[in-house]
């Protein structure tokens, strides 16, 4: 797993390195500029040599400072470079000013308005060094420029060339206009124009930032490349701050997923999934099959009497047990071998759903609550929060989240006015603290948090994009995956992170045309790829 930083964390790491005497701010800026130029030629080798033209747009802070370094280095590599500044050169911070002066020895710096007033793009490469992690408010003056950039990225692809008027666009650290902590744009009144820039390639430094993976961030960055600028690992700083760091969930290590060679089926747990009544049983079966495929030793579907025949006709390896209402569930849970419970998929929002959920929670077993088990508590979420415990995982999508945590959802949906804006990471952490359990807040940027503040993002974006995952029943399979992992003894946070990661891998393995039934069936191939 890698860590995703906030702007304040990045500044703290940078500050610690400068104070320790290991590096100067000017050296970091030089390395940042070098990293951008390296990334440009790695991405587009054809831009080197020949009569290539680059335009570098520099802003009033250190992001602009990186831009002046990029301009100088591009010129050294043979590009014809024009530089435009947004803001007042006299007010640039010291390192940016030093690089402005260095560039000015060889080239001109014109006001940005001169560029935006001109016709066409006039370059093969456009470098956006207007704002990076320091942006903290809307930038309405630039809306028209942003709008044109979006058009360039969306409408024309990267078949660039100044003779055709189509530049490749590279963003330094962030496409300008994005809040680096939340990935949100800062809206302004002129809604006709865009609020943030777009890029084909975004080059960031040291580690990715949260905003590259949240909200509009992932949509606007194009592709993110992270360049090392020689900052050390900062072990001490990390030790003090690990809980506040957000992780990006990465490839699983097969060792902690492997089953014991000599394990009995009960060693791998017994998951109980509750089914809805007749006519709405498919969702629970999807969850149950997911739990079994992911490695629970046994999975039992608990079905009300009315749906026994329907379920029996559709189950083989998953076992079936009649469970009628809360009383029936209490009796079944006397068997302590049921070590994980899954409620919600297709459960219905009838009167007894609430009683079933409360009974399951009182049994104090690892429990996943999804779908109807959550929406049933829309009118009285505090009743649910009162009983959720540390071995629970709740898996709301946006609508379910809003019903359970309306005030948090409102803050998250509010337009960003000042930075750092309230992010999906903030919202999920706050929800987990309130619920007292792990919250998995779904989306292409799924955020998972526990009540202690640990937090991670499972990104189905960039090269892990899996748009086919937005299909009926896919959430039910995820609930099943997590339940199966809980049955196998994974901690709630580990189960949620692992289940979410595998869920996306399964979707990517199958590809377009995916329906929910296909997801769990990809697990064997995904496991093989992992070397299991
Ligand atoms: N940290 C590190 O380790 C390293 C950082 N590096 C680089 O520094 C970047 C961060 O630099 P930064 O902090 O100077 O902020 P930046 O993004 O340039 O913007 C701030 C400026 O914009 C201004 N401003 C803000 N909003 C505005 C608006 N709407 N409209 C107009 N103006 C607005 C704001 O003005 P103020 O709010 O102060 O009035 C201030 O002048 C980072 O992204 C990376 O590229 C690298 O060199 C490597 C090491
Ligand atoms: K930028």
Could you explain the architecture of this structure?
The protein folds into 2 domains: 241 residues, YjeF N-terminal domain (Rossmann fold), CATH 3.40.50; 198 residues, 3-Layer(aba) Sandwich (UDP-N-acetylmuramoyl-L-alanine:D-glutamate ligase), CATH 3.40.1190. The strands form 2 sheets. The chain has an 11-stranded mixed beta sheet with strand order 1-9-18-17-16-15-14-13-10-11-12, with helices on both faces. Strands 4-3-2-5-6-7-8 form a 7-stranded parallel beta sheet, with helices on both faces. The mean pLDDT is 94. The protein is α/β, with parallel strands linked by helices and 532 residues long. Helix content is 40%, strand content 15%. Strand 7, helix 7 and strand 8 form a beta-alpha-beta unit. It is elongated, with a radius of gyration of 26 Å. The structure holds ligand NPW and potassium ion (K).
Note the topology.
Elements lengths: L1 E3 L2 H13 L5 H19 L9 E6 L3 H15 L3 E6 L8 H11 L4 E3 H6 L7 E5 L13 H14 L11 E5 L28 E5 L11 H5 L2 E4 L7 H7 L4 E3 L21 E5 L7 H12 L4 E6 L4 H5 L6 E4 L2 H8 L5 E6 L7 H12 L4 E3 L1 H5 L5 H7 L4 E3 L3 H7 L1 H8 L10 H12 L2 E4 L3 E5 L5 E5 L14 H14 L4 H19 L5 H6 L1 H8 L2
Parallel strand pairs: 2-3, 2-5, 3-4, 5-6, 6-7, 7-8, 9-18, 10-11, 10-13, 11-12, 13-14, 14-15, 15-16
Antiparallel strand pairs: 1-9, 16-17, 17-18
The chain binds ligand NPW and potassium ion.
């Amino acid at each position: 797993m890698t860590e995703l930083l906030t702007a304040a964390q990045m500044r703290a790491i940078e500050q610690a390195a400068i104070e320790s005497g290991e590096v100067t701010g000017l050296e970091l800026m030089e390395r940042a500029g070098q990293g951008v130029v390296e990334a440009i030629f790695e991405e587009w080798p054809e831009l080197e040599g020949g009569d290539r033209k680059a335009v570098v747009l520099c802003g009033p802070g250190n992001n602009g400072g990186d831009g002046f370094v990029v301009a100088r280095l591009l010129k050294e590599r043979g590009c014809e470079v024009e530089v435009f500044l947004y803001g007042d050169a006299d007010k640039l911070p010291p390192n940016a000013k030093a690089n402005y002066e260095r560039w000015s020895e060889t080239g001109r710096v014109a006001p940005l308005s001169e560029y935006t007033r001109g016709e066409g793009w006039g370059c093969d490469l456009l470098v956006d060094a207007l704002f990076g992690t320091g942006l903290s408010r809307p930038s309405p003056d630039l809306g028209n420029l942003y709008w044109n950039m979006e058009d360039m990225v969306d409408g024309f692809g990267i078949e660039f060339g100044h003779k055709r008027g189509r530049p490749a666009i590279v963003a330094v650290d962030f496409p300008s206009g994005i809040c680096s902590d939340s990935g949100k744009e800062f809206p302004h009144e002129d809604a006709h124009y865009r609020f943030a820039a777009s890029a084909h390639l975004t080059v960031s430094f040291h580690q990715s930032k949260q905003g590259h993976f949240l909200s509009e961030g992932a949509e606007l960055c194009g592709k993110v490349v992270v360049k090392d600028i020689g900052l050390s690992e900062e072990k001490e700083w990390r030790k003090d701050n690990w809980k506040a760091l957000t992780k990006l969930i990465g490839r699983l290590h097969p060792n902690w997923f492997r089953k014991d060679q000599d394990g009995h089926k009960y060693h791998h747990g017994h998951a109980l999934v509750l089914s809805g009544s007749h006519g709405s049983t498919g969702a629970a079966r999807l969850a149950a099959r997911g739990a079994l495929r992911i490695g629970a030793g046994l999975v039992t579907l608990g079905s009300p009497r009315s749906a026994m025949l329907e379920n029996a006709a559709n189950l083989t390896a998953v076992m079936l047990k009649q469970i009628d209402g809360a009383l029936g569930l209490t009796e079944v849970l006397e068997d302590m071998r049921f070590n994980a419970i899954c409620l919600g998929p297709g459960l219905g929002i009838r009167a007894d759903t609430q009683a079933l959920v409360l009974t399951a929670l009182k049994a104090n077993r690892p429990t996943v609550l999804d779908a109807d088990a959550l929406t049933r508590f829309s009118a009285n979420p505090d009743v649910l929060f009162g009983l959720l415990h540390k071995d629970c995982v709740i898996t709301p999508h946006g609508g379910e989240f809003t019903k359970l945590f309306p005030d948090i959802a409102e803050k998250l949906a509010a337009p960003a006015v000042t930075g750092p804006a309230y992010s999906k990471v903030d919202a999920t952490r706050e929800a987990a603290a309130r619920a007292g359990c792990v919250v998995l807040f779904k989306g292409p940027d799924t955020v998972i948090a526990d009540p202690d503040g640990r937090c991670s993002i499972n990104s189905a974006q960039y090269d892990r994009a899996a748009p086919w995952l937005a299909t009926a029943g896919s959430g039910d399979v995820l609930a099943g995956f997590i339940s199966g992992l809980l049955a196998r003894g994974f901690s709630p946070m580990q189960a949620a992170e692992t289940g979410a990661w595998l869920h996306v891998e399964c979707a990517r393995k199958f590809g377009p045309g995916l329906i929910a039934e296909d997801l769990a069936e990809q697990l064997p191939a995904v496991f093989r790829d992992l070397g299991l």
